[in-house]
Amino acid sequence: MTFSMPATAALPASPARLPRAYAWVVFALTFGLMLSDYLSRQVIGAVIPALKADWGLLDSQLAMLVSVVSLVVGILTVPMSLVADRWGRVKSITLMAFVWCLATIACGLAQTHGQLLWARAFVGLGEAAYGAAGAALLAHVFPARQRAAVLGAFLSASLFGSVLGVVLGGAVAAHSGWRMAFFVVGAPGLLLALIYPFVVRDYKTVELTPDVPRSGAAPKRLRLAQIAREVFAARSGNFTYLASGLQMAMPAMLIAWLPTYFSRYHDVDVKKAGMMAGVAVLASGIGMIFGGGLADRLSRNHPRRRTLVPAAYSVISALVLSTAFALPPGPLGLGLIFLGALFAAAHGGCSGAIICDVTHPGVRATVTATVALANNLIGLAPGPLIVGVLSDVIGLKLALTLTPALALAAAVFFVLASHNYEADAARTRARGTPEAA
Protein backbone atom coordinates (compact mmCIF):
# COMPACT_ATOMS: atom_id res chain seq x y z
CA MET A 1 0.00 0.00 0.00
CA THR A 2 1.46 3.36 -1.01
CA PHE A 3 0.53 7.01 -0.82
CA SER A 4 1.65 9.62 -3.35
CA MET A 5 4.02 12.01 -1.58
CA PRO A 6 5.62 14.60 -3.92
CA ALA A 7 8.95 15.56 -2.37
CA THR A 8 8.85 19.09 -3.73
CA ALA A 9 5.57 20.13 -2.17
CA ALA A 10 5.73 23.09 0.21
CA LEU A 11 5.44 22.91 3.95
CA PRO A 12 2.28 24.48 5.38
CA ALA A 13 2.36 28.15 6.16
CA SER A 14 3.94 29.01 9.46
CA PRO A 15 1.34 29.35 12.23
CA ALA A 16 2.66 32.87 12.88
CA ARG A 17 1.26 33.96 9.48
CA LEU A 18 -2.27 32.91 10.32
CA PRO A 19 -4.51 35.61 11.85
CA ARG A 20 -4.77 35.21 15.59
CA ALA A 21 -8.55 35.72 15.53
CA TYR A 22 -8.94 32.96 12.94
CA ALA A 23 -6.85 30.59 15.08
CA TRP A 24 -9.15 31.13 18.04
CA VAL A 25 -12.28 30.67 15.91
CA VAL A 26 -10.87 27.33 14.74
CA PHE A 27 -10.14 26.47 18.36
CA ALA A 28 -13.68 27.37 19.45
CA LEU A 29 -15.37 25.25 16.78
CA THR A 30 -12.99 22.33 17.22
CA PHE A 31 -13.40 22.54 21.00
CA GLY A 32 -17.18 22.59 20.58
CA LEU A 33 -17.15 19.41 18.51
CA MET A 34 -14.91 17.76 21.10
CA LEU A 35 -17.56 18.64 23.70
CA SER A 36 -20.19 16.99 21.51
CA ASP A 37 -17.91 13.97 21.01
CA TYR A 38 -17.63 13.34 24.74
CA LEU A 39 -21.20 14.26 25.55
CA SER A 40 -22.15 11.41 23.24
CA ARG A 41 -19.51 9.10 24.61
CA GLN A 42 -19.96 9.62 28.35
CA VAL A 43 -23.70 10.15 28.79
CA ILE A 44 -23.81 6.38 29.31
CA GLY A 45 -22.25 6.80 32.77
CA ALA A 46 -25.23 8.86 33.93
CA VAL A 47 -27.82 6.36 32.75
CA ILE A 48 -26.13 3.19 34.00
CA PRO A 49 -28.24 3.05 37.21
CA ALA A 50 -31.44 3.44 35.13
CA LEU A 51 -30.32 0.78 32.64
CA LYS A 52 -29.52 -1.60 35.49
CA ALA A 53 -32.97 -1.05 36.96
CA ASP A 54 -34.79 -1.44 33.62
CA TRP A 55 -32.86 -4.35 32.13
CA GLY A 56 -31.28 -6.03 35.19
CA LEU A 57 -27.76 -6.02 33.71
CA LEU A 58 -24.55 -7.08 35.48
CA ASP A 59 -21.85 -4.47 36.14
CA SER A 60 -19.64 -6.19 33.55
CA GLN A 61 -22.42 -5.88 30.92
CA LEU A 62 -22.87 -2.21 31.77
CA ALA A 63 -19.10 -1.72 31.51
CA MET A 64 -19.21 -3.15 27.98
CA LEU A 65 -21.48 -0.27 26.95
CA VAL A 66 -18.80 2.13 28.19
CA SER A 67 -15.75 0.30 26.85
CA VAL A 68 -17.04 -0.59 23.39
CA VAL A 69 -16.73 3.03 22.24
CA SER A 70 -13.11 3.24 23.33
CA LEU A 71 -12.38 -0.17 21.83
CA VAL A 72 -13.73 0.81 18.41
CA VAL A 73 -11.94 4.16 18.59
CA GLY A 74 -8.70 2.40 19.47
CA ILE A 75 -8.95 -0.08 16.61
CA LEU A 76 -9.91 2.45 13.95
CA THR A 77 -8.14 5.62 15.03
CA VAL A 78 -4.90 5.05 13.10
CA PRO A 79 -6.37 3.86 9.77
CA MET A 80 -9.01 6.58 9.84
CA SER A 81 -6.44 9.21 10.74
CA LEU A 82 -4.31 8.09 7.80
CA VAL A 83 -7.38 8.74 5.66
CA ALA A 84 -7.82 12.14 7.33
CA ASP A 85 -4.19 13.04 6.59
CA ARG A 86 -4.68 12.18 2.91
CA TRP A 87 -8.36 13.04 2.27
CA GLY A 88 -8.41 16.18 4.41
CA ARG A 89 -8.89 16.97 8.08
CA VAL A 90 -11.89 19.29 7.68
CA LYS A 91 -13.91 16.94 5.46
CA SER A 92 -13.12 14.01 7.76
CA ILE A 93 -14.14 15.93 10.89
CA THR A 94 -17.46 16.96 9.35
CA LEU A 95 -18.38 13.43 8.31
CA MET A 96 -17.31 11.93 11.64
CA ALA A 97 -19.41 14.42 13.61
CA PHE A 98 -22.55 13.47 11.68
CA VAL A 99 -21.92 9.77 12.33
CA TRP A 100 -21.42 10.03 16.11
CA CYS A 101 -24.40 12.38 16.58
CA LEU A 102 -26.80 10.18 14.63
CA ALA A 103 -25.49 7.05 16.39
CA THR A 104 -26.10 8.69 19.78
CA ILE A 105 -29.69 9.42 18.82
CA ALA A 106 -29.99 5.77 17.75
CA CYS A 107 -28.91 4.70 21.26
CA GLY A 108 -32.14 6.16 22.60
CA LEU A 109 -34.12 3.91 20.24
CA ALA A 110 -32.44 0.65 21.34
CA GLN A 111 -34.75 -2.06 22.70
CA THR A 112 -32.14 -4.57 23.90
CA HIS A 113 -28.64 -4.62 25.35
CA GLY A 114 -27.33 -5.93 22.02
CA GLN A 115 -28.91 -3.12 20.02
CA LEU A 116 -27.57 -0.52 22.42
CA LEU A 117 -24.11 -2.10 22.23
CA TRP A 118 -24.15 -1.84 18.42
CA ALA A 119 -25.31 1.78 18.52
CA ARG A 120 -22.54 2.59 20.97
CA ALA A 121 -20.05 0.92 18.62
CA PHE A 122 -21.15 3.30 15.86
CA VAL A 123 -20.60 6.22 18.22
CA GLY A 124 -17.00 4.98 18.44
CA LEU A 125 -16.82 4.68 14.65
CA GLY A 126 -17.74 8.33 14.27
CA GLU A 127 -15.31 9.48 16.95
CA ALA A 128 -12.37 7.31 15.88
CA ALA A 129 -10.14 9.97 14.31
CA TYR A 130 -11.71 13.20 15.54
CA GLY A 131 -9.28 13.92 18.35
CA ALA A 132 -6.30 13.29 16.08
CA ALA A 133 -7.59 15.37 13.18
CA GLY A 134 -8.66 18.20 15.48
CA ALA A 135 -5.32 18.22 17.27
CA ALA A 136 -3.48 18.27 13.93
CA LEU A 137 -5.42 21.36 12.82
CA LEU A 138 -4.76 23.16 16.09
CA ALA A 139 -1.07 22.26 16.03
CA HIS A 140 -0.96 23.94 12.61
CA VAL A 141 -2.76 27.18 13.44
CA PHE A 142 -0.97 27.83 16.75
CA PRO A 143 2.80 28.29 17.24
CA ALA A 144 4.90 25.52 18.80
CA ARG A 145 5.56 27.54 21.97
CA GLN A 146 1.85 27.28 22.84
CA ARG A 147 1.45 23.66 21.80
CA ALA A 148 1.09 21.91 25.17
CA ALA A 149 -1.25 24.58 26.49
CA VAL A 150 -3.47 24.66 23.38
CA LEU A 151 -3.61 20.88 23.02
CA GLY A 152 -4.25 20.55 26.73
CA ALA A 153 -7.12 23.03 26.47
CA PHE A 154 -8.49 21.20 23.43
CA LEU A 155 -8.29 17.82 25.15
CA SER A 156 -9.92 19.30 28.24
CA ALA A 157 -13.08 19.49 26.15
CA SER A 158 -13.21 15.72 26.53
CA LEU A 159 -13.50 16.18 30.30
CA PHE A 160 -15.92 19.10 30.12
CA GLY A 161 -18.00 17.17 27.60
CA SER A 162 -17.94 14.26 29.99
CA VAL A 163 -19.12 16.54 32.79
CA LEU A 164 -22.02 17.76 30.66
CA GLY A 165 -22.78 14.21 29.59
CA VAL A 166 -22.91 12.96 33.18
CA VAL A 167 -24.75 15.95 34.68
CA LEU A 168 -27.12 16.66 31.79
CA GLY A 169 -27.70 12.97 31.16
CA GLY A 170 -28.48 12.35 34.82
CA ALA A 171 -30.86 15.29 35.02
CA VAL A 172 -32.72 14.36 31.82
CA ALA A 173 -32.86 10.68 32.78
CA ALA A 174 -34.32 11.56 36.18
CA HIS A 175 -37.12 13.64 34.64
CA SER A 176 -37.74 12.14 31.20
CA GLY A 177 -36.08 8.72 31.16
CA TRP A 178 -32.74 7.45 29.90
CA ARG A 179 -33.80 7.36 26.24
CA MET A 180 -34.40 11.10 26.18
CA ALA A 181 -30.90 11.64 27.60
CA PHE A 182 -29.40 10.21 24.40
CA PHE A 183 -31.63 12.37 22.20
CA VAL A 184 -30.73 15.56 24.08
CA VAL A 185 -26.94 15.08 23.92
CA GLY A 186 -26.88 13.79 20.33
CA ALA A 187 -28.68 16.62 18.56
CA PRO A 188 -26.54 19.77 19.21
CA GLY A 189 -23.42 18.43 17.48
CA LEU A 190 -25.29 18.25 14.18
CA LEU A 191 -25.44 22.06 14.04
CA LEU A 192 -21.69 22.43 14.62
CA ALA A 193 -21.02 19.80 11.97
CA LEU A 194 -22.99 21.87 9.46
CA ILE A 195 -21.05 25.06 10.27
CA TYR A 196 -17.53 23.61 10.49
CA PRO A 197 -16.58 23.17 6.79
CA PHE A 198 -17.78 26.66 5.90
CA VAL A 199 -15.46 28.33 8.45
CA VAL A 200 -12.35 26.17 8.89
CA ARG A 201 -9.70 25.92 6.17
CA ASP A 202 -7.60 22.80 5.92
CA TYR A 203 -3.83 22.84 5.43
CA LYS A 204 -1.86 21.09 2.74
CA THR A 205 -0.38 17.82 3.98
CA VAL A 206 3.31 18.20 4.87
CA GLU A 207 5.49 15.84 2.87
CA LEU A 208 7.48 13.21 4.70
CA THR A 209 10.26 12.86 2.13
CA PRO A 210 12.95 15.45 2.90
CA ASP A 211 15.08 14.79 -0.16
CA VAL A 212 14.33 16.74 -3.33
CA PRO A 213 14.46 14.45 -6.39
CA ARG A 214 16.68 15.20 -9.36
CA SER A 215 15.15 17.45 -12.00
CA GLY A 216 12.58 15.56 -14.01
CA ALA A 217 12.42 12.65 -11.55
CA ALA A 218 9.04 11.24 -10.65
CA PRO A 219 7.65 12.10 -7.20
CA LYS A 220 8.50 9.55 -4.56
CA ARG A 221 5.77 7.34 -3.18
CA LEU A 222 5.67 6.70 0.51
CA ARG A 223 4.81 3.20 1.67
CA LEU A 224 2.74 2.43 4.73
CA ALA A 225 5.83 0.88 6.32
CA GLN A 226 7.66 4.20 5.94
CA ILE A 227 4.80 6.04 7.63
CA ALA A 228 4.95 3.53 10.49
CA ARG A 229 8.69 4.14 10.86
CA GLU A 230 8.04 7.88 11.14
CA VAL A 231 5.33 7.34 13.75
CA PHE A 232 7.49 5.05 15.90
CA ALA A 233 10.92 6.54 15.12
CA ALA A 234 11.36 8.36 18.45
CA ARG A 235 12.08 6.25 21.53
CA SER A 236 10.65 8.97 23.78
CA GLY A 237 7.49 8.99 21.68
CA ASN A 238 7.03 5.25 22.07
CA PHE A 239 7.32 5.46 25.85
CA THR A 240 4.87 8.37 25.81
CA TYR A 241 2.28 6.32 23.93
CA LEU A 242 2.41 3.71 26.71
CA ALA A 243 2.44 6.25 29.54
CA SER A 244 -0.46 8.25 28.16
CA GLY A 245 -2.53 5.13 27.58
CA LEU A 246 -2.07 3.81 31.10
CA GLN A 247 -2.81 7.16 32.71
CA MET A 248 -6.03 7.61 30.72
CA ALA A 249 -7.49 4.68 32.67
CA MET A 250 -7.85 7.11 35.59
CA PRO A 251 -10.32 9.63 34.11
CA ALA A 252 -12.04 6.76 32.27
CA MET A 253 -12.86 4.86 35.44
CA LEU A 254 -13.95 8.05 37.22
CA ILE A 255 -16.32 9.10 34.43
CA ALA A 256 -17.80 5.63 34.05
CA TRP A 257 -18.19 4.60 37.68
CA LEU A 258 -18.38 7.66 39.93
CA PRO A 259 -22.14 8.16 39.41
CA THR A 260 -22.73 4.52 40.41
CA TYR A 261 -20.23 4.76 43.28
CA PHE A 262 -21.94 7.82 44.73
CA SER A 263 -25.36 6.24 44.25
CA ARG A 264 -24.38 3.01 46.04
CA TYR A 265 -22.07 4.25 48.79
CA HIS A 266 -23.26 7.83 49.41
CA ASP A 267 -26.95 6.91 49.12
CA VAL A 268 -27.97 9.67 46.70
CA ASP A 269 -30.36 9.64 43.74
CA VAL A 270 -29.31 9.46 40.09
CA LYS A 271 -29.48 13.22 39.54
CA LYS A 272 -27.37 14.12 42.59
CA ALA A 273 -24.90 11.31 41.87
CA GLY A 274 -24.46 12.69 38.36
CA MET A 275 -23.85 16.18 39.70
CA MET A 276 -21.27 14.95 42.23
CA ALA A 277 -19.50 12.95 39.54
CA GLY A 278 -19.65 15.99 37.28
CA VAL A 279 -17.70 18.04 39.82
CA ALA A 280 -14.95 15.40 39.84
CA VAL A 281 -14.81 15.26 36.03
CA LEU A 282 -14.78 19.07 35.92
CA ALA A 283 -11.74 18.96 38.20
CA SER A 284 -10.07 16.62 35.69
CA GLY A 285 -10.77 19.08 32.88
CA ILE A 286 -9.30 21.96 34.87
CA GLY A 287 -6.25 19.83 35.60
CA MET A 288 -5.81 19.05 31.92
CA ILE A 289 -5.86 22.75 30.98
CA PHE A 290 -3.44 23.92 33.66
CA GLY A 291 -1.37 20.74 33.53
CA GLY A 292 -0.28 21.45 29.96
CA GLY A 293 0.38 25.13 30.67
CA LEU A 294 2.44 24.31 33.76
CA ALA A 295 4.51 21.81 31.78
CA ASP A 296 5.14 24.46 29.10
CA ARG A 297 6.34 26.92 31.73
CA LEU A 298 8.51 24.51 33.72
CA SER A 299 10.15 23.04 30.61
CA ARG A 300 10.96 26.36 28.96
CA ASN A 301 14.58 26.29 30.16
CA HIS A 302 14.67 22.61 31.14
CA PRO A 303 13.24 20.61 28.20
CA ARG A 304 13.41 17.27 29.99
CA ARG A 305 10.70 18.45 32.38
CA ARG A 306 8.27 18.16 29.45
CA THR A 307 8.14 14.44 30.35
CA LEU A 308 8.92 14.56 34.08
CA VAL A 309 6.03 16.87 34.94
CA PRO A 310 3.36 14.42 33.67
CA ALA A 311 5.18 11.64 35.55
CA ALA A 312 4.59 13.63 38.74
CA TYR A 313 0.90 14.06 37.84
CA SER A 314 0.58 10.28 37.47
CA VAL A 315 2.12 9.53 40.86
CA ILE A 316 -0.06 12.08 42.64
CA SER A 317 -3.27 10.81 41.03
CA ALA A 318 -2.47 7.18 41.90
CA LEU A 319 -1.73 7.83 45.56
CA VAL A 320 -4.59 10.24 46.17
CA LEU A 321 -7.29 8.22 44.40
CA SER A 322 -6.32 4.90 46.02
CA THR A 323 -6.45 6.58 49.43
CA ALA A 324 -9.79 8.24 48.65
CA PHE A 325 -11.56 5.00 47.73
CA ALA A 326 -9.97 3.07 50.59
CA LEU A 327 -11.47 5.47 53.15
CA PRO A 328 -15.03 5.07 54.43
CA PRO A 329 -17.53 7.20 52.47
CA GLY A 330 -17.48 10.71 53.90
CA PRO A 331 -16.25 14.28 53.40
CA LEU A 332 -12.53 13.40 53.54
CA GLY A 333 -12.80 10.66 50.95
CA LEU A 334 -14.98 12.87 48.75
CA GLY A 335 -12.47 15.70 48.92
CA LEU A 336 -9.62 13.36 47.99
CA ILE A 337 -11.60 12.05 45.01
CA PHE A 338 -11.87 15.61 43.71
CA LEU A 339 -8.16 16.23 44.36
CA GLY A 340 -7.13 13.01 42.63
CA ALA A 341 -9.38 13.84 39.69
CA LEU A 342 -7.55 17.16 39.30
CA PHE A 343 -4.36 15.25 38.41
CA ALA A 344 -5.96 12.26 36.67
CA ALA A 345 -5.87 13.79 33.17
CA ALA A 346 -3.34 16.60 33.66
CA HIS A 347 -0.89 14.70 31.46
CA GLY A 348 -3.11 14.99 28.35
CA GLY A 349 -1.66 18.13 26.76
CA CYS A 350 1.86 17.10 27.73
CA SER A 351 1.56 13.78 25.90
CA GLY A 352 0.32 15.39 22.71
CA ALA A 353 3.05 18.03 22.85
CA ILE A 354 5.81 15.47 23.40
CA ILE A 355 4.67 13.45 20.41
CA CYS A 356 4.42 16.53 18.16
CA ASP A 357 7.88 17.66 19.30
CA VAL A 358 9.61 14.41 18.34
CA THR A 359 7.87 13.43 15.08
CA HIS A 360 7.57 14.86 11.57
CA PRO A 361 4.57 17.19 11.00
CA GLY A 362 3.71 15.30 7.83
CA VAL A 363 2.23 12.53 9.96
CA ARG A 364 0.89 14.75 12.72
CA ALA A 365 -2.69 13.49 12.51
CA THR A 366 -1.36 9.95 12.38
CA VAL A 367 0.88 10.31 15.43
CA THR A 368 -1.81 12.04 17.44
CA ALA A 369 -4.05 9.18 16.33
CA THR A 370 -1.48 6.76 17.68
CA VAL A 371 -1.69 8.55 21.03
CA ALA A 372 -5.47 8.15 20.81
CA LEU A 373 -5.03 4.46 19.95
CA ALA A 374 -2.86 3.95 23.03
CA ASN A 375 -5.23 6.00 25.18
CA ASN A 376 -8.22 3.95 24.07
CA LEU A 377 -6.79 0.44 23.90
CA ILE A 378 -4.57 0.68 26.99
CA GLY A 379 -6.63 2.97 29.23
CA LEU A 380 -10.07 4.17 28.15
CA ALA A 381 -11.44 0.78 27.06
CA PRO A 382 -9.85 -1.55 29.68
CA GLY A 383 -10.09 0.86 32.65
CA PRO A 384 -13.88 0.85 33.14
CA LEU A 385 -14.09 -2.82 32.14
CA ILE A 386 -11.44 -3.83 34.69
CA VAL A 387 -13.40 -1.99 37.38
CA GLY A 388 -16.65 -3.63 36.28
CA VAL A 389 -15.23 -7.16 36.25
CA LEU A 390 -13.52 -6.67 39.62
CA SER A 391 -16.72 -5.14 41.01
CA ASP A 392 -18.68 -8.31 40.23
CA VAL A 393 -16.10 -10.26 42.28
CA ILE A 394 -14.85 -8.01 45.10
CA GLY A 395 -17.22 -5.04 45.08
CA LEU A 396 -17.04 -1.63 43.41
CA LYS A 397 -15.32 0.14 46.29
CA LEU A 398 -12.32 -2.20 46.41
CA ALA A 399 -12.13 -2.32 42.61
CA LEU A 400 -11.81 1.48 42.51
CA THR A 401 -9.18 1.34 45.26
CA LEU A 402 -6.93 -1.05 43.32
CA THR A 403 -7.21 0.28 39.76
CA PRO A 404 -5.17 3.51 40.32
CA ALA A 405 -2.04 1.33 40.45
CA LEU A 406 -2.07 1.68 36.64
CA ALA A 407 -1.07 5.33 37.06
CA LEU A 408 2.16 4.32 38.82
CA ALA A 409 3.10 2.29 35.74
CA ALA A 410 2.34 5.37 33.61
CA ALA A 411 4.79 7.41 35.71
CA VAL A 412 7.54 4.87 35.03
CA PHE A 413 7.09 5.18 31.26
CA PHE A 414 7.08 8.99 31.39
CA VAL A 415 10.40 8.85 33.24
CA LEU A 416 11.79 6.46 30.64
CA ALA A 417 10.68 8.89 27.90
CA SER A 418 12.62 11.68 29.60
CA HIS A 419 15.95 9.96 28.87
CA ASN A 420 15.55 10.36 25.09
CA TYR A 421 13.20 13.32 24.70
CA GLU A 422 15.80 16.07 24.16
CA ALA A 423 17.76 14.07 21.59
CA ASP A 424 14.61 13.07 19.70
CA ALA A 425 13.30 16.65 19.62
CA ALA A 426 16.67 17.94 18.40
CA ARG A 427 16.68 15.32 15.63
CA THR A 428 13.25 16.51 14.46
CA ARG A 429 14.41 20.14 14.41
CA ALA A 430 17.54 19.18 12.48
CA ARG A 431 15.38 17.80 9.67
CA GLY A 432 14.40 21.37 8.85
CA THR A 433 10.73 21.29 9.79
CA PRO A 434 9.81 24.81 10.94
CA GLU A 435 6.93 23.75 13.19
CA ALA A 436 9.24 21.56 15.26
CA ALA A 437 11.02 24.65 16.52
From TrEMBL:
This is MFS transporter. Its main location: membrane. The keyword Zinc does not apply. It comes from Variovorax humicola. The chain crosses the membrane at residues 21-40, 60-80, 92-111, 117-142, 149-174, 180-199, 239-262, 274-295, 307-327, 333-355, 367-390, 396-417. It is a multi-pass membrane protein. The keyword Transmembrane helix applies. Coiled coil: none annotated. PROSITE patterns: MFS (PS50850).
